[in-house]
Design a protein that fits this description.
There is one protein chain. With 281 residues, the chain is α/β, with parallel strands linked by helices. It has 2 domains: 4-202, Rossmann fold (3-Layer(aba) Sandwich); 213-280, rRNA adenine dimethylase, C-terminal domain (Helicase, Ruva Protein, domain 3, Orthogonal Bundle), CATH 1.10.8. It contains 12 helices and 9 strands. Helix 6 runs parallel beside helix 8 and helix 9 (213-225) crosses helix 12.
Length: 281
Amino acid sequence: MTSPRTLLTAWNIQAKKQLGQNFLSDPNVARAIVNRAGIADRDVVLEIGPGLGAITVPAASVARRVIAVDKDGRIIDLLRAELLAAGVNNVDVREADILKTDLDALGREAGCPLVVMGNLPYNISSQVIVRLIHARAHVRRAVLMLQKEMAQRICAGPGSKTYGRLSVMLGYCAQTETLMQVRAPQFFPAPKVDSTVVGIHFSDRPPFPAEDEALLFQVVKAAFGKRRKTMRNALSQSDLKLDPATCEQLLIQSGIDPMQRAEHLPVAAFVRLCNQIAIHR
């Protein structure tokens, strides 16, 4: 693995801060991430933001195929040159914005559920995770490197200050686990904070199925949109168009104290509330 500093200098490319480009520079860490991803030789990997190929090359050595999607056209040719030098021929490099990419179509193209990997910039992490949740029929699992704060948020449980919308959405349809920590100096350029590699395993069927999943996610968004308010007030002041009295009634019917805050409610409570709202409508 050629060092990112050397590659970028040779190709006269500077990392773009607005794209969150911090390239992994430790090949041992890259191999460890791939090992912990548990990739099998039948798997098709979707790598988000392959950058200079630190994870792409070891992933390609074990996967049937890798689809590498990066929006920065400046490094596409560089990445292809690195893959050629490494003798890798099962990687499909595509210049595209992952936020505009049809994940369902990629899954159908692959012919099997995808294993998603990526070192995600902080500014798009939430959006990518939400898109994976919606496309989970075509995504078996995801192994994502995230800023430590974001990783804590998605793995948090009820009662934690970091428990929020993403925690509930993932808790509804997946199991999450912390796989490893990656220190800031192991990137170039080095970010200001450490990163955490998180595994997300999507369930075939949620343990507490909602009658209307889209409504569930709306309820969760409303509840955490004003997280310092009580559930009654947060919901009645949201786009759900429910008055305070109705909110209180629905919460009580769901077995939820109307004066409780969203951060204390488990996933099952949100599902019960969603189902009550669906009946009310």
